[in-house]
Model the fold of this input.
Amino acid sequence: MNAIEFILSGMLAAATPFLLAALGELVVERAGVLNLGVEGLMALGAVLAFIVVYHGGGHFFGFVIAGLGGAALSLVFAIVALGFRANQVATGLAIGIFGQGLSALFGKTYESLTVKALPKLAFPWLSELPVVGGLFNQDIVVWISLLATFGMWAMFTYTKLGLVVRAVGENPKAAHAIGYPVISVRVIAIAFGGAMAGFAGAYAAVIYTPLWADGMIAGRGWIAIALVVFGTWLTGRIFLGACLFGAVSLMGLAAQATGMDVPSQLLSSLPYLVTIVVLGIISANRRLLKLNGVASLGEPFER
Done:
């Protein structure tokens, strides 16, 4: 397998933690709330899923517990940010730090232990194609995440639910005036985003890298938040951005396998360097941000 085949075969799996967390954050931000605690939510979901799977609970139950844990911690953010109208940036950072602390506490006795990952599901014929065949040989969570991406796009494009979420984020006072429960919509969006972050952490811990190590999320939550801006709050662009970052995260391994004399520290920093560059490029296009941005993002709502 050459470097290109290696990157293509692993790109979707590497992109899945970014994609799941970014889709959840997209719903949160579309509702007008900025939650910067995604890193901690992913870390908590990762350790909860690992503990469940390690003790024989199965991957499905591990994902359920991870989603519930992420949703529960995100509701703490909702109570403080929406109920007490605290600063959303400070509250999100506090929740993120708290989640990482909980993950370190719960996972201390499981350090360096491993679990069995899920088998891959291949599409007949397509998985045997040269070069691109690896794209069609993925585990079931990757396929579900692709369906979730399509479902998210359809929800925001064609359904009343998507319209309500967007209305609450764009102009909460007008949405409240015509009878939409702004606070309830935002709380549900926050809980959904927390659950998706928990699923993302679970995938990273029990499928993509089926072991537990403190700090294993390693900035994926921050990249997921950046992906929402990178994709200018559009589902399709977020998916493409996740694939880009998934491919970049594998480039270091591919370069080492080919014998390139490049410091490993530089290779491991590639996803974060790309994040900085891409955000700089996107932020320079004020028209694009204004066209697709959320007007009331981060602003508290008062009846």
Observations:
- The radius of gyration is 19 Å.
- Strands lie at 120-122, 137-139.
- Residues 232 and 292 are 6 Å apart (CA to CA).
